[in-house]
User: What shape does this take?
Amino acid sequence: MNETILIENGTILDGNGAPPVQGSVLIRGGKIVAVGAGAGPGPGPEAVRRIDATGQTVMPGLIDAHCHLSFDDAGSNAEIFHQRRDALSALVAAYNAKKLLRAGVTGFLDPDSTFENMLDLRDAIEAGVTAGPRMACGAYALITGVGGTAGRLIADEGVTGYYKVVNSRDEIVREVRRQVKIGVDWIKVHVTGIIPRQAQRGEVCVWTADELKLLCDTAHDLNTPVMGHCRGADATKLAAETGFDLIFHATGMDDAALQAVIDRKVPLAPAFTLQANIVDYGDRLGTDRELVALFEREITDSADTIKAAYRAGVPLLCGSESGFSLVPYGDWHWKELEVFVRYFDMSPLEAIRCATAEGARALRMEGRVGQLTPGFEADILCVQGRVDRDLSLLGDSDNIRRVFLAGVEQDLTPLPPRKPIPGWRLAGMGSMLTREVALRGPQAEPFTVEELH
Ligand SMILES: [Zn+2]
Assistant: This one.
């Protein structure tokens, strides 16, 4: 923490969108104290550790605004709801947190967790008990009795997996206050859910405006922001109007929803990485082509409104939705940046800004992390090559040469491989051996995005 470090000869990206500059970054007491061509320790007798970053990009660490570290790359909600154990899932999450560090993630927001145990991981990381990125987290995601995105798997009341049902105004107030007491950084709400019998409508808003307003007012009175999972125009509009501080997904906005988001400049985290992975690798997973097209349409149908929000000054944050098997920890935290470039017409520098300076909002640390600016926390990556020219460099862990968290260099040696944990995954009999499969080979597995959140 007290080491003075000079990272020299790198290409510096400040995280705030400024053009790259060649130069140095000086770190002292865990903070950035000087950046640029002339940055240096001064003439005094101070001991300085010099690091040569020739050929490397020096940039702020990535901040993943949507990563479920208690889910452990689950293949389904059923696995998360029924196969996980409290202490063990927290221990496994501690292992996975180290994967994030090795992938250049120095901060992330965990929206909701089984057993609410990511609060424990956050506190353990902050206390130095185990290594991991900076963490902000919610607890159980609040839903109404209508449900969330797992249909009848969710009990009518109480807790199921990462969900908690609140069935009355009293329960809303009581649960928000309880979560604040146990130490959440955010309250997570599933504003939309899927009604199995009405699945053709897609996700629908399962709250009234009054209920959302009560929830936000209760949380805000206790200095706690609210984040919501919203698909569809009605839910996004309601969330923006009732005071939500961060909206995930925000797909399918109409003009009114877009205006509500713009009026209040509510940050959005689309978290399209999972869909983009299906688009890019669906053929390798054996995903049906029509389903791949459906996933791509979820991105393209919403690209214009999300772009319009961004152009009107709405912050966009990068979230990976890691925690599910389609976005395993450590591999895809960078990919949302590429999605922003490909589908939202951003420059790489703009996308980097979303994943760093803007990402700080997810940690509730705006103006303190996410930029290489004097006075900021020294959360820094040294990446081989020019990241501003090729964002995919971030995807290869061999390129992540150094990671600093509050000025402390992190251990990037490969993790020892894990062995299977008994009873951890949801057992299945595998694909159905229909006569069609017997004659023609494997068919695409049925899979719907509504299952995920
Ligand atoms: Zn999620």
